[in-house]
Design goal:
419 residues, mainly alpha, 18 helices, single chain, Growth Hormone, Chain: A
Length: 419
Amino acid sequence: MTPTPTHRHALTFIFITLLIDVIGFGIIIPVVPALIQLLRGPGTTYAEAATWGGYLGFAYAGLQFLTAPVLGGLSDAYGRRPVLLFSLLGFGIDYVLQGVAPSLAWLFVGRCVAGITGASFTAASAYIADVSTPENRTQNFGLIGMAFGVGFILGPLAGGVVGHHFGPRAPFFVAAALALVNALYGYFALPESLAPANRRAFDWRRANPIGSLRQLGRYPQLLGLVGAMFLLYIAGHAAQSTWSYFTLERFRWTPDEVGYSLAFVGLVIGAVQGGLTRVLVPRLGPRRAVLAGLGFYIIGFVCFAFATHGWMMYAFMIPYGLGGLAGPSIQSIISGAVPATEQGELQGALTGLVSVSSIIGPLLMTNLFAHFSHHAAGALYFPGAPFLAGAVLTVLALGLVAGAFGRQQNAAHLQNTEA
């Protein structure tokens, strides 16, 4: 299928939608530690705040795991548009609840609301699959990474500055306004991508989270890649869940300095996934791009773990950012092996994997950070421990990918021999 002007317009809208979504998410990251400390009371350490931050991530991911397959199945039955708009509205409500939260319990209520409605990336991924061709699928999925990159330039930068000048609650209200305006914009501007002929009836048996994950078993040739994605998602929480706490503890940064660093993270990721992905993946091919990206991730994690000065976090972001070649390439390979009628279900199952990894990842990484950040006598002080764990997990993912590619090559060789 040749991309039409309508499809190009839809992709532009999806990019804008994801961009605003990520800005809203990124804008609160620099101030979450300060808000947790404010609600917990004076004397709360960064190690203690990180532990509570991990619990908040656990609540969000647990509910998303339960509901994402349902929303993915609904998008296969009724279209991507209503699910996407519902998700954006939920995020707006979530940020308002967190902004006015008088206690940690209310922060948990807000994250639960976001978990229930957090299907924007599920529906957006299925939307992209709907309007993509085999030739441009990897590049179009790179829009997700580009939205993350640009959103993480603008979001944390704004959040750090706003939080520094107006307090830790202010960025939540800015994020709420962005999400609600985005939902309103989508209501009037977003076309539906799923043709009626490609829809399927909703089935609760296929929409439950365990059943959704089991659907991946129908594609045994993809299980190695799916397993690698799972490990990579967990590894990613070394940065996602501990960056603010790590830099505040290790280098004594202020919230605005955290925002500046995360803006640079976004700049690098946006350049890689929005620019280099479109240039390098067609030349390397998706398989070699995956292997190269995983190698760069390992280098980046190890360097972060042993950073001793704040400027090093900026320098080491270059190899870590180049690791962004892996994600869109893996997703493209998996998506290309699944029929159009099951893309929503596939993306729901993959979002379920993200949710499971987000249940495990924040708890694992924030507790590693908390355990190795105590200054007690005799305790090993190594706040970079989560990054080292991320490197180990990525090495395991690399082994799964290499094994999956080897089995595929052997199967292809066997087929050619029999022919």
